[in-house]
Amino acid sequence: MFRVAVVGSGPSGVYTAQALVQQTAVPDVRVHVLDRLPCPYGLVRYGVAPDHEKIKSLQGTLRTVLEHERVAFVGNVEAGTPELPARRLLELYHAVVYCTGAAADRRLGVPGEDLPGSFSATEFVSWYSAHPDAAPDGFALGVRSAVVIGVGNVAVDVARILARGAAELLPTDVPQGALDLLSGSTLREVHMVGRRGPSQAKFTTKELRELGSLPDARVSVDPAELALDPAYEDPSELPTALRRNVEVVRGWASAPPSARGRVIRLRFHLRPVELLAEAGRVAAVRFERTVPDGAGGVRGTGSYEDIEAQLVLRSVGYRGTPVPGLPFDPARGTVPHAGGRVLRDGRPSHGEYVAGWIKRGPTGVIGTNRPCAKETVASLLADAGALARREVAGEPLDVLRQSGLRPVQWPGWLAIEAAETALGASLGRRSVKIADWAGLLDAAGDGRV
Ligand SMILES: Cc1cc2nc3c(=O)[nH]c(=O)nc-3n(C[C@H](O)[C@H](O)[C@H](O)COP(=O)(O)OP(=O)(O)OC[C@H]3O[C@@H](n4cnc5c(N)ncnc54)[C@H](O)[C@@H]3O)c2cc1C
Q1: pLDDT of 99-139, one tens digit each?
Q2: Which residues bind NADP(+) (predicted)?
């Protein structure tokens, strides 16, 4: 038997497990998919927005892999802790594939960033996704104006959730505490602000277009600001995806005014320089206007604009965090590797691999993790002959329990799912996520050991 530990049950971890059990070169592979959370699926459960049901339904595909006879889910087990250091994993498994993601947020690096009322988009997403590490219901939404800094898909997600009415989120699995706060929201304006022009924004057209189809919100853009973008007047030379983005924005610029409730103001050519406080809380964001620098970037103009905001969500990218005991490149926020083989001091580490966001950084869609995982598995299989010669210690789950860990296995996860369905039924809703550690572990019950 050839034992592999996959650390992380997000898309890259599950695609790694799938590639391992689908190949035939090394027949008797057994895969344990470990996760620090008692729930599988990584950001598909805790990142993809609750109103994107089609993408969420990918969990069904991932599920079939975790239910494969040679794959076992082992939740509530964190790698890189004193109970389970990286070297212990190598004693228990012939190979270890780290698929730990890159879910920490990048900083803006401007004064006032940490004022009360200013959060990373990560914190906001974790809250409405019921991540058990999220701050409980700390978002004051009884305010008038929010600023979302950034123009990528995550910025679009958080702007859309802020602009949606709670009734639209009722059929989703959004936790009850978040739904209650969102239904009391008095927000009128959501400003989504980028430092460059619309032809350089990172959102995808489908997500962008969706902002214009919300039942109780309208999108507003300023044609003069858009015209600063050299490709705005004639986007025909742009790559298709960017051209379509510009066309969507141009459509909004020429649309007749609408009286729909909330306004999403898309702003461009503004870069944040400071968050301003009033009575100890954020009250506005100061932006410097920018213009194209002629080399594909922008430069400041020395002219400033303050946008009122009692809530600020910073969405300027994600980065990986180190797993103690594993090499880490702090500049890139990834683990150094060659073809998925972890590099220690520039040389491949025997039996250690990476896949997904912790390998290549936070880019691409869920499907991008599949070829990424396949590349890593190809490297692992090429090494399998040498790896299999190494003796590994007894049954890993027994060893984990002896170290004081209490893994949540598949029946425990199924019990959590059942508890979420029951919680939803008691609230007159479909399945509703449990948002705290105690509730999740309690629901996992006997499936925990
Ligand atoms: C807010 C947000 C929304 C997104 N929406 C979409 C979308 O709509 N469509 C789309 O295609 N893509 C979307 N993406 C991108 C997509 O989620 C990623 O491509 C994908 O999740 C990356 O997969 P991963 O397995 O590398 O990381 P993750 O999904 O982050 O999985 C990592 C897993 O590792 C676990 N873990 C971390 N450290 C440890 C440890 N030390 N020990 C054990 N377990 C550990 C974590 O708990 C987690 O379960 C979104 C991303 C974000 C951030």
Answers
A1: 999 988 999 999 999 999 999 999 999 999 999 999 876 78
A2: 195-196, 207, 364
